[in-house]
Amino acid sequence: MAVREVLQVGDDLLRKTSKEVKVFDEKLEDIIDDMWETMYAFNGMGLAGPQVGILKRIVVMDVNNMRLELVNPVILKSEGVDIEEEGCLSCGKIRGKVKRPMKVTVKAQDRYGYEFTITGEKYLARCLCHEIDHLNGVLFIDKTIK
Ligand code: NI
Which of 40, 52, 69, 101 is the most exposed place for a label (fewest CB within 10 A)? Predict the structure, then answer.
């Protein structure tokens, strides 16, 4: 495992759309393990592939003491509205309020390709949306409200 460099805002890779993961192999596991190590090394709560220069639809998150690995996550349903402050390992010390759904249901695959769904509210819903945005080249600073 290795701590990878976290790309910072201004880097073009952060603005690209990540590709679906189709092969679930050891290489994927190595990437996911590196993402965990990198996220914890920088005290993050979530990290998406593009943030470490990997344009694949992979997210790791540690929210409410729950470790989640999401490969090819898709939002199936979102409800309500919640406005809270966010930050991002790719945006330095910038923080800002972002409007997100209060509750989302997400479908994803684990590192072995098995599909699961997760429903999260409030902070978990926010993190899921924030990380999935990364896979589409969107940063929270694009969405902050004054
Ligand atoms: Ni982020």
Answer: 40
Calpha distance 74→142 (Å, rounded): 20
Residue 77 lies in a domain: yes
The residue annotated as part of the active site, out of 29, 37, 84, 131, is 131
For residue 100, what are the domain limits? 12-142
Q: CA-to-CA distance for 20 and 28, rounded, in angstroms?
A: 12
Is 53 within a domain? Answer: yes
Beta bridge partners of 130: none
In a domain? residue 2: no
Distance 17 CA to ligand 1 centre (A): 14
pLDDT in tens, 47-56: 999 999 999 9
- Domain of 104, CATH number, reads 3.90.45.10
What is the count of structural domains for the chain?
Answer: 1
The average confidence (pLDDT) of the chain is: 97
Predicted TM-score of the model (pTM) = 0.97
Name the residue among 105, 145, 110, 107 with its Cα closest to residue 125.
105
Residue 128 belongs to some domain of the structure: yes
Tell me the CA–centroid distance for residue 51 and ligand 1, in Å: 8
pLDDT digits (tens, 9 = 90+) for 82-98: 999 999 999 999 999 99
